[in-house]
Amino acid sequence: MRKITSFLLFFIFSFSILLGEEKKFTLLNTSDEHSTLAPIPLTDYVKNIANPTLGGFARLATKVKQIRHEKGDEPVVLLSSGDIMGGSPFAWLILENKSFEIEIMQKIGYQAMTIGNHEFDYGPDGLSNYLSRAGYENSQPNMDILIANLNIPDTLHLKKIKLLPYKIYTLSNGIRLGVFGIQGAASFKLAPSAGDVTLFDQFEIGKKTVEQMRKEGADVVVLLSHSGIEEDKQMAQKIQGIDIILGGHDHIKTPQPIIENNTIIVHPSYYLQYVGQLNLSFDTETKKVKLLNDELKKEYLQILDDKVEEDSTIASIIQSATSELNQFINQYSGGQLNNISENIINLGFEVKKDADYKETTIGNFVTDAMRIVGSKVTKDKVDIAIQGNGVIRADIITGTLDSTKGKFALYDLLTVVGLGKGPDNSAGYPMVSCYLTEKEIFNLLEVTAMLSQVYGDMFFLQFSGLKYTYDPGKAMWLKIPFINTPIPANKAIKSVFLYTGEGIQDNSNNYIELHREGKRLFHVVTDYYVAQFLPMVGKVLPKLEIKFKDKNQKVLTLEEAVVLQENGSEYKIWQAIATYAKELNQMPPSYKSTQNRIVKEEGIPYKVWSYTLIAIIIGAIIFLIRKFLKRKTSH
After folding, report:
1. What is the mean pLDDT of residues 140-168?
2. Which of 101, 379, 385, 412 could form a disulfide with 464 if both were Cys (CB 3.0 to 4.6 A apart)?
3. Strands (E), 489-622
């Protein structure tokens, strides 16, 4: 009997190996956390009371613990697709030698993360110092940083940081999980502070990395991608062997995974509003990965709302970070601002970005603040203020609770324009002040009409102090396929009028017309980020040259154009917005709707004529070739 039992067990074991075995595992992922340590909007964040806020690392910690408990012995792997910093005021503490984001992620138990474009907000040295403080220079913490296509020169301190191209993790059930990181080309274009760091081709490196991991025995291959959904699809199409892409960058969420060339693609939204959850199985015989969420009736995105309790350990760390942020804001503002939770302005309506490639009420509010407060700070009337859509990161939305209705917290306002740093290495993009001629103002408007079509809404500019009419179809003759390079026409701007009134720009008659070739000088303010891009265009396209000048027409460097306070520190855009809001006290009705500052009047696009001409030329060439060949054969 014992022999028969042993034989049956041996037979069953052998048969299971022959048929293969389904091993289950779970992947959890977040992306674009952007230093949002606490739930948002902070205006509505009231502990122990039901509220509509989302996110926060303390809630995430609890949710991850719950899922790990539910799964028991089944492996659960937590990963991030990058942009863990930048955007929230908490990111400002990075420049105060703190690394709260990554230290919290280590405590929660992330297995790995990749690097996004905002990791370079404070330059390569800022990133290396941040990671060094978190233990990545002299040791290897329990969370890996995976990035395969960064080209880091040997001269940079970042080269000493322990960044891995990929890693193969052996899970508790024996699955060998290969994970690698990629930053996409479109993402990296939005990292002007990356300095000498460049990218290797993501598709070439991706292909080699997948092949290498497969050679080393990876059963399942996961890509942590900070590239955006379109480049993720391209990666899936061009590279065989990627089972799962956990993506980020463009702040979208996929309630259902996208399946592209048998690759599962998931984006979990941003600011820790959700954590992505993929319940999976791996068949050891077929080597296939299978999604189990529908079978298990599990959502692909788990919401982090007020029903998720906060982990007390992580909440305590966030409270320490809050105290440090309050102290920093108080010191930098000279005591004008004290607490990120304080009400900064009373609202009766929302001021927000409700459309791309258009004037918005939030754009009007931000640029009016820059123009009006900029006049006081520079002690010289500002004619025009400029801000890019890519730097305006949030809306102004009233609280919804009985205790918060009509209010808006300082933290949420600072998040609107919280990115970057200045040359002095302090938090936030500084205000830049210069003088431009009428011709250069036309050039600037032509630049935004063209670049926003080539590189997206992030390059669309909002204005205070002028109004203009334009035809986007006349910005360029055509865009050269494959290399995404425009052939400019410089005929998009039809008319420009300068506001000559005081205070908030309105629809009065206080306007004068500007002329395309005019030489009059006007005082312009923008922020350091936008100011980096504007002169660059003129270097490539001399007809659109823009040179920063003082009122005496002396050419200024970008650093010379930075606005300084009386104490010598840089004057930040976030200070201008906060000062403006506090002085207003109540949001003016002017911001209920847009004011026709930017008017689009479309005719027949120049590209229609360009492609028609190209077609005629190609047709003529074909005709002449055929005629030549016919004549040759007749002889």
Report:
1. 96
2. 385
3. 493-499, 511-513, 521-527, 598-600
Spatial separation of the C-alpha atoms in residues 556 and 488, rounded to whole Å: 27
Contacts of the segment 535-539: beta carbons below 8 A, 24+ positions apart: 537/447, 537/451, 538/443
Among 429, 443, 442, CA closest to 515:
442
CB 179 within 8 A of CB 224: yes
Would you kindly state where each structural domain of the chain is located, as residue ranges? 18-313, 333-603, 608-635
**At a CB cut-off of 8 Å and minimum separation 6, what does 568 contact?**
none
First-to-last alpha carbon distance for the chain, in angstroms, is 97
Distance (Å, rounded) from C-alpha 192 to C-alpha 165?
Answer: 23
pLDDT of 4 reads: 54
Residue tagged 């420009």 (tokens): 496
Nearby residues of 551 by Cβ (< 8 Å), 6 or more positions away: 380, 435, 521, 523
Residue 372: name the closest of 502, 275, 463 by CA: 502
253 residue type, one letter: K
Q: How far apart are CA 299 and CA 393, in angstroms?
A: 28
C-alpha 511/C-alpha 462 separation (Å) is: 18
Q: How many CB atoms lie within 10 A of CB 296?
A: 9
Do residues 75 and 109 touch, judged by C-beta distance below 8 A? no
16 has a pLDDT exceeding 80: no
User: How is domain 18-313 classified at the CATH fold level?
Assistant: Purple Acid Phosphatase; chain A, domain 2 (3.60.21)
Percentage helix, strand, coil, to 5, in the chain?
A: 40, 25, 40
420 Cβ neighbours under 8 A, 6+ residues apart = 86, 121, 193, 391, 428, 429, 527, 528, 529
Considering the entire predicted model, what is its pTM?
0.86
**3-class DSSP assignment, residue 399:** strand
Does residue 454 carry a pLDDT above 90?
no
Average pLDDT over residues 106-112: 98
Closest CA to 429 of 137, 188, 95, 29: 95
**Ordered alpha helix ranges (H), 585-605:** none
Q: According to the model, what pLDDT value does residue 172 have?
A: 96
What architecture (CATH level 2) is domain 333-603?
A: Alpha-Beta Complex (3.90)
Determine the Cα–Cα distance for residues 314 and 317; give it in Å rounded to an integer. 5
**φ, ψ for residue 359, nearest 5 deg:** -60, 140
**Residue 449, Cβ neighbours under 10 Å: how many?**
28
What is the rounded average pLDDT of the residues 352-375?
Answer: 95
Per-residue model confidence as pLDDT tens digits over 564-608 = 998 889 999 999 999 999 999 999 999 999 999 999 998 887 777
Tell me: pLDDT of 32 over 90. yes
| pLDDT on residue 2 | 54
Token couple for 205: 């490196």
